[in-house]
Amino acid sequence: MHLIPTNEEVISMLRETGALRDGHFEYPNGMHADEFLQVALAFRYYQQAKLLSVGLSRHLRADSEIRAMIKDLSIVTPTTGGLPIAYGVCEALRAKQVYWAEQETEDGDMHFRQYLEQHSGERVLLVDDILRSGKRFSKLRQLVEQNGAKVVGLAVAVYQPNPTAARFEDLPLFYLAKMDAVYYKDAASCDLCHKGVPVQKVA
Fold first, then answer.
1. CA–CA separation, 121 vs 103, rounded Å?
2. Angle at CA 150, nearest 5°, toward 147 and 151?
3. Count of domains observed in the chain
4. 1 lies in a domain?
5. Has residue 2 been placed in a domain?
6. Helices marked H in 120-190 — which ranges?
7. Kind and range of the H or E element at 96?
8. Which contiguous run of DSSP H or E holds residue 88?
9. Is the separation of the CB atoms in 153 and 121 below 8 Å?
10. Which pairs with CB-CB distance under 8 Å and at least 24 residues apart come from 90-95?
11. At a CB cut-off of 8 Å and minimum separation 6, what does 24 contact?
């Protein structure tokens, strides 16, 4: 394993831990795909969690602008599911703090817990285990910026954009692995459905 895991090494690790599965899957938005990735399953294992977190932190340290602000940097994640990698990256970087947003429903607004207040000009790195649609990052960015903080970048273990993924072209995006699943917009256009491959609904 390299100091910064290669794309192939990350994918192999995800398969070994059961985080990456091949098959026929239906996502909550109705899209179908030929694989399902749940990065959180890899974080069940300390060694794998450490390799992913430290590897991502090395990508971040290699960026001169991020490196210059580390001691004042807040690591913020859009869900509690992103906390393992957020804490791992914060520890490896020795950044200032970690906190997270909460969301009552899938389509509801995000908010921070009572007494958690951002200060104007606070520099924030948004971190999660995966970027697929970008919807959570978009909501979190809006929340962070409306409170006067400044988002300086996005970091994920795996970048697996679907065809309708939000774009963040004005922000640097750091990731360990990029994966391109085959997506179908619905059952009617899905080749796997036409072939009669059993489908599994995933959250």
1. 24
2. 115
3. 1
4. no
5. no
6. 135-146
7. none
8. helix 83-93
9. no
10. 91/53, 92/53, 92/54, 92/56, 92/57, 92/58, 93/57, 93/60, 93/61, 94/70, 95/70, 95/71, 95/125
11. 32, 34, 190, 192, 193, 197, 198, 199, 200
- pLDDT digit string, tens, across residues 136-176: 999 999 999 998 999 999 999 999 998 888 999 999 999 99
Tens digit of each residue's pLDDT (9 = 90 or more) over 101-124 = 988 777 788 999 888 888 899 999
Measured CA distances, 36 to 8, 27, 114 (Å) = 17, 9, 35
Report the distance separating Cα 176 and Cα 117, nearest Å.
Answer: 31
3 state SS of 130: strand
What is the 3-state composition of the chain as percent helix, strand, coil, each rounded to the nearest 5? 35, 25, 35
Cross-strand bridge partners of residue 184:
32
The residue segments making up the domain with residue 65 are 7-201
The CATH number linked to 147 is: 3.40.50.2020
